[in-house]
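Supplementary Methods. Inverse-folding protocol.

Structures were first reduced to a discrete structure-token string of length 285. This string, shown here, constituted the complete conditioning input.
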């Protein structure tokens, strides 16, 4: 039996039934009919080095149905090649062209603002290599930018250096605003948490390039060669993935396999189009 449909005159949408107690704006069948998908990785495809349930079936379905797709991650740690290799180690074969990161988006943004500039970077190889590839040099003396991403080597020393460089005039850039990231046994501090002491110590507000910035969403659509109407975004975070889709007018799917839960969704002033336990529900039986 099909669930009841209620027309919402404010948004011109049919709120289709209930999914475990929540109203949804877009049906699962409509999601399946989309021609393109922008899919987050952490909390959607894997936790740390653990592949999440249903992911292999979902990726097999994308290929079988000839869907366009890009894995768009706010993480700046790894290059597309490294992400491809990680999925291969987890048993998935996906071409390198299907990956796009906040590190790449940050590099493109900086090149558009100041070609051939320099940066002091707190981050991992994925971010540093992306900046090198667009012609940026690393500079600890008088950089144009201080760029912060996820970092496993975050120390009081490099924090102090970043603070003083920003105070001397370097502009502060964050690859993404995520406060936390999921791992196998909990969470880790995200870029938003790592950059906060620099903002507080300098009075400068960082500019974040990754989700929910519409810049990275437009880059994803361009990479897919897709329109927003034929695309859906799948993610586990209300404050980046879902708001990205809403502000870009792309249908949204929230999966509960990452940091979001049914208990905290109601804290937000906006809601996802559809809520699923994981991407394994999308292909169907």
């Amino acid at each position: 039996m099909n669930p009841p449909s209620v027309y919402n005159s404010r948004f011109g949408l049919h709120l289709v039934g209930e999914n475990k107690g929540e109203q949804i704006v877009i049906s699962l069948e409509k999601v399946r009919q989309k021609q393109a998908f922008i899919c987050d990785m952490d909390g959607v495809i894997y936790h740390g080095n653990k592949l999440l349930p249903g992911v292999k079936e979902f990726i097999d379905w994308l290929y079988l149905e000839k869907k366009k797709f890009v894995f768009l991650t706010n993480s700046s740690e790894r290059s597309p090649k490294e992400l491809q290799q990680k999925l291969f180690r987890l048993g998935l074969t996906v071409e390198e062209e299907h990956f796009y990161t906040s590190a790449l988006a940050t590099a493109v943004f900086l090149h558009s603002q100041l070609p051939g500039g320099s940066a002091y970077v707190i981050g991992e190889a994925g971010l540093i290599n992306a900046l090198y590839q667009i012609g940026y040099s690393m500079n600890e003396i008088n950089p144009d930018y201080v760029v912060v991403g996820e970092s496993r080597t975050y120390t009081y020393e490099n924090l102090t250096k970043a603070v003083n460089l920003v105070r001397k005039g370097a502009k502060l850039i964050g690859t993404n605003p995520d406060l936390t990231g999921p791992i196998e046994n909990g969470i880790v501090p995200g870029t938003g948490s790592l950059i906060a002491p620099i903002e507080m110590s300098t009075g400068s507000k960082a500019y974040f390039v990754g989700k929910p910035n519409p810049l990275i969403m437009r880059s994803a659509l361009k990479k897919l060669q897709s329109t927003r109407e034929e695309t859906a975004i799948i993610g586990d975070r209300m404050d980046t993935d879902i708001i990205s889709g809403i502000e870009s007018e792309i249908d949204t799917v929230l999966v509960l396999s990452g940091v979001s839960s049914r208990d905290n969704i109601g804290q937000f002033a906006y809601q996802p189009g559809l809520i699923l336990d994981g991407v394994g529900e999308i292909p169907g039986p």
